[in-house]
Amino acid sequence: MKKIISTPNAPAAIGPYSQAIEVNNTLYISGQVPIDPSTAKVVEGGITEQTEQVMKNIGAILNEADYTFADVVKSTCLLSDMAHFKAMNDIYGKYYSENPPSRAAFAVKELPLGVLVEIETIAVK
């Protein structure tokens, strides 16, 4: 059975989608952008600050669904420019220091709200 996961500790959906869906012990987290849920605004700063906020948002959703970063099996990272890859990777790596998930990273033409990074995540128990 499909279960909708929602937390005020991550940004509210800015379109017709859920923060996350859990089905059959698998959590599908929608792409997270660097919105601070306390202000509902994109965090100030560059790719480092934006990636940190994205990872905090993912962590809040994982926590709400009773998962951890250790349960993550796949991430898809979307970047506004591949020149941001190294800085994004440095922050991302702090959250997956052991047994990191599989991952794809792409540069795209543009992202919602003009952000520099968006990351979607799949976790399994």
Topology:
Elements: E1 3-5, E2 20-23, E3 26-32, E4 35-36, E5 41-42, H1 47-64, E6 72-79, H2 85-95, E7 102-107, E8 117-124
Parallel strand pairs: 6-7
Antiparallel strand pairs: 1-2, 2-3, 3-8, 4-5, 6-8
Helix pairs in contact: 1-2
Q: How would you sum up this structure, described in words?
A:
23% of the residues lie in helices and 32% in strands. It has 125 residues and is of the alpha+beta class. It has one domain (3-124): 2-Layer Sandwich (60s Ribosomal Protein L30, Chain: A), CATH 3.30.1330. The protein has a six-stranded mixed sheet, covered by helices on one side. A two-stranded antiparallel ribbon has the order 4-5. Helix 2 links the parallel strand 6 (72-79) and strand 7. Helix 1 (47-64) runs parallel beside helix 2. The longest helix is centred in the middle third of the chain and has 18 residues, at 47-64.
User: What composes the largest sheet?
Assistant: 6 strands, mixed
Query: Can you tell me the residue ranges where pLDDT is under 50 for at least 5 consecutive residues?
Result: none
Which strand order does the major sheet show? 1-2-3-8-6-7
CATH topology: 60s Ribosomal Protein L30, Chain: A
Content of β-strand: 25-35%
CATH architecture: 2-Layer Sandwich
- How many structurally independent domains? 1
Total DSSP helices: 2
Distance between the termini: 15 Å
Mean pLDDT equals 97
Mind telling me the CATH superfamily name?
A: RutC-like
Q: SSE string, helix = H, strand = E?
A: EEEEEHEHEE
